Amino acid sequence: MVFSEQLICLRKQKGMSQEQLGEKVGVTRQTVSKWELGETTPDMDKLIELAKLFDISIDELVGKEAPTGTGTLCRMYERPYYEYKSKRTFHGLPLVHVKLGPGITRAKGVVAVGTVATGIVTFGALSFGVLSFGAIAFGLIALGALGIGALLAAGSIAIGLLAFGGIAIGVFAAGGLSLGVYSLGGCAIGDKIAKGGYASAKIAIGDETRGDAVFDIHLDGQAEQIKAAIYKYFPGTWDWIVKIFAR
User: Fold this and answer.
1) Domains of the chain as residue ranges with CATH
2) Exposure letters 133-148 (e unless 16+ CB within 10 A, then b)
3) What is the DSSP string of 107-158?
4) pLDDT band at 69, cuts 50/70/90?
5) Beta strands at 96-100 and 106-113: parallel, antiparallel or unpaired
6) 106 three-state secondary structure
7) How confident is the model at residue 77 (pLDDT cuts 50, 70, 90)?
């Protein structure tokens, strides 16, 4: 266990708030908060005061040794806890930071794994990264229950330039309910082209349609007509988009 986790557990064991602990050792509540978040560490004088306050050695306080005696055992030691932080860094970030355990664990690295993960490739309940995976994921490419991606998003709810999900919102959106410039889905609502069970757009292809140019999704032999309509209304549309909707 690292110092920050040990400090949280020992403080709670004593029934003290961050403010009360700060008063005991002569620092502000904000300083204690930074210690517990792992943003800063105390100097030696404060470590000595903390060790005396909790009646443990400095090595035990910083997690180098397991606490001894029945009165100082922190219950967090009984729960699964794991942390790995690589010594090699990239622009100040560890190449790999994995932090798993009870409560909220914060990991920050090029590759980061934790409850809250921040970095380039991230995995976490709340995840921020270039490539991000999590229950709630934010990134250039985001995959999660809620995925918000600048380029690509996929999830139950997906928001991005390219969005794929139960509910998809994007320039190109595909999902059960899709909202976008170009939309595909059970219910597809598009600014330009939509295709689905219900389709509403300038050009609509579906079972039930609403638009200026409408096509029955079940009829064969319409590919050329759909292409002609797309090029008529929206000259310069990318070929891959035309192929998807005319198929």
Assistant:
1) 3-78 (1.10.260.40), 82-129 (no CATH), 138-246 (no CATH)
2) bbebbbbbbbbbebbb
3) EEEEEEESSEEEEEEEEEEEEEEEEEEEEEEEEEEEEEEEEEEEEEEEEEEE
4) very low
5) parallel
6) strand
7) very low
